[in-house]
Amino acid sequence: DTEVTQTPKHLVMGMTNKKSLKCEQHMGHRAMYWYKQKAKKPPELMFVYSYEKLSINESVPSRFSPECPNSSLLNLHLHALQPEDSALYLCASSQDETGGTEAFFGQGTRLTVV
Amino acid sequence: RKEVEQDPGPFNVPEGATVAFNCTYSNSASQSFFWYRQDCRKEPKLLMSVYSSGNEDGRFTAQLNRASQYISLLIRDSKLSDSATYLCVVNMRTGGFKTIFGAGTRLFVKA
Fold this sequence. Notes:
The complex is a heterodimer of chains A (114) and B (111). Chain A has no helices and eleven strands. In chain B, 0% of the residues lie in helices and 60% in strands. Chain B starts with a strand and ends with a strand. The mean pLDDT of chain B is 91. The interface between A and B is medium-sized, with 27 and 25 residues.
């Protein structure tokens, strides 16, 4: 199983809503990531979790709150988002964060903030 | 200067052509290198890893030049299905470990 599963696939939310994005992998990977991708741009790293601990936060606004309940799950809690936060949110995982292995991506959640 | 730079293209080539992409990286502490392919509105998928000794997979050849800090991807006998965005990806240690994407190179293969 080389899958990273993200839910939901599409999400429309208002600026006052609270929602969560979910990501799951069962490859035994110990590093998990959140990326944001705008149209015609490359993915931009948001957060890195290594062994269930947050190791990198790329100065992401606090309206995005990551959570790693266990080694297979990664959540991204959203609150008071802005329309410019509309994007494709990609979750990825890799064997570990030593840098030697490739990352596997989920299909993404396409988020629209209205 | 961006940490990973690619020519965004687009590259428009006929079927059967050979096309090459280059990518440069600025951090000499970079550890591993990959080419990913991304189709429109889809997630990035690993195409191949890149090693100093070179890596070939069918019509695709990737090469790493650590001294000059660039990686390359060569596609031979292009197919219509090769049309996609090709992302150069570098894993590097800058404090913590990061995966950095290049801007991507768009390829259109025409009949």
